């Protein structure tokens, strides 16, 4: 009986061990299979990145060569406009043959007879498409063509450019051929220590240039005779190339596995094919091979291996946190070091703008100021993204005015639009509440980023900000839609749109600037507020971005509240059709009796005969209308986005904020909205009795701050250290102190503690404002905790400076 029990126990033990071994074996093979799949994915990804970099460099180099040739030839065509006779034009073209890459050049009059220093005979090109296009005033660049010259045959692309006469009409055409071999240098860029090679093909797969011989003159024919690996196919590759997409494929060609990366050149439908053998990159996978050997060795002690993985994971996580903290500290320090000299740049710019400058000088100074603000925007984007990435970004929620937010956004957007022929307007839902609870700064940041993106890519037409909302389960969802008539977005770029540090239209973005972080940050902010951002776009027609964020309504007040007497009628003159539609919609929503006309003559005739109680039009039209009316009527100026409401004698409505303006129409009080949001030095109220102490270890920043405050006519003392500041406070009763943070020997926090411990009650209670380039939220919380009364970031914002001076000087002098 005992033996039977032992036998049963042994069988159970064997079954358990067998099951454990089987389980370990199955687990091992699953892990091994997953590893090899990871191995192949990593190998493919590494190769794709390397080939993508090479292909992009090649494409950039090739496009630069083509562009430079076109610019050079355009200059030649412009020069021909000043040469009177055809014979002298041909003589002049003789010298241009020395230009690099120009294999053939000639001139044809309107008759289409081509004459060239390259050949003795003339040629009739009057029926060629490129000639006809140039005669119509359009520069044309052909696909690859072959031309027989006197002493050789040349293949290349033909540039045809109109040559204009004195009245601006095309009197003839400059014809030039760039030798296709001129692009060979660009194609010779190789990767993987020279083991990669490349082809340049057209839309039909025909070979244009090569760095290595090909079995056929058509790349598609090559692909029809290879064996593709799993996940890749001839049809997908060909379809991608025909659709001008970039991508990678893997196939076996004559016993050699090869990666082929295809990149559209962006010219005439040409594509660059970069190829490298799969074995070439195997040397770069030593780390993966080592990991495989460790995995096989660890099979015998899988439990130890798992414990090791846990330990490694813990250490890696700890290191990542430490690296993230180091990166955040580095970025904060970088921001501080950049903001300190930028304070001098922006401050001196502000001071120069106060001077009597010439128009050209003022333009230069405005450029400096604009560039400084752009740089600060880039720094702020990087800091915000770093905080989001490290998980340290937090929302600060409080009650805020939606009207104030919209007014600020309008001013910022109008400033960015500048002189562009772009109409900006805001469409407000009548159900929007006046006050919301949430992080207004981050909601504003989303709006600024979306509107800034629209301004950047819209050169004409309109930009519209539509604000609406809905209540769900007690929460209010604020919906912000930005529509524009800009360049739009390609379908293949949609997935990259919200990626960090990516700009889908790099050619346009390089000229307008930006980090490529704005949309990525906006999406992260929306998701932190439990919302999202969606986009719709038609390439070449425009885009529409919609962001929805969760807020909470505060109170029952509506954002726009209009009570309009039914018997009173409003006549509106608006020549812009988009604005007409917006006004029509708003007036109908708020039940305002109205009539809108877009023709000035009809408008003036109608209001002179009709019985309208209010007339809303631009100042010029309003003046003409009032002179034609012989009865009492209330005139209201309709201000354009580029106009300033200050100085207007009549009541005014600002067109982008039309709904807000409607509220003021029945009021005797003149309500206007400043269009540009700019701070005018004439608005400063002098306070000569005030005594101010400026503390900064940087003499330049002291000088700038003192000069910026000069219009206030205050009594200003300066100190360049904490010790000097304490000494000054003990001797003088100051009304306000601006105190730098990072100073040697005694920093701002230490200096404040000494001041707050002075025996004189009045001296230790003096308001102290932190004046610093450290603008992180952590720093602001530190200053508040340490007892600072306010915060002034560098570079100094003159608007914020005015607010602080007026607030604390009034408070202190009560």
TrEMBL record:
The keyword Cell division does not apply. It is a multi-pass membrane protein. Pfam families: dCache_1, HATPase_c, HisKA, Response_reg. It is an enzyme of class 2 (transferase). The modification 4-aspartylphosphate is found at residue 740. Its main location: membrane. Residues 691-809 form the Response regulatory domain. GO terms for molecular function: ATP binding; phosphorelay sensor kinase activity. Its EC number is 2.7.13.3. Residues 333-553 form the Histidine kinase domain. It comes from the Bacteria. In the N-terminal section; belongs to the phytochrome family. PANTHER family: HYBRID SIGNAL TRANSDUCTION HISTIDINE KINASE J (PTHR45339). At low DSF concentrations, interacts with RpfF. This is Circadian input-output histidine kinase CikA. It comes from Anaerostipes caccae (strain DSM 14662 / CCUG 47493 / JCM 13470 / NCIMB 13811 / L1-92). The lineage of its organism: Bacteria, Bacillati, Bacillota, Clostridia, Lachnospirales.
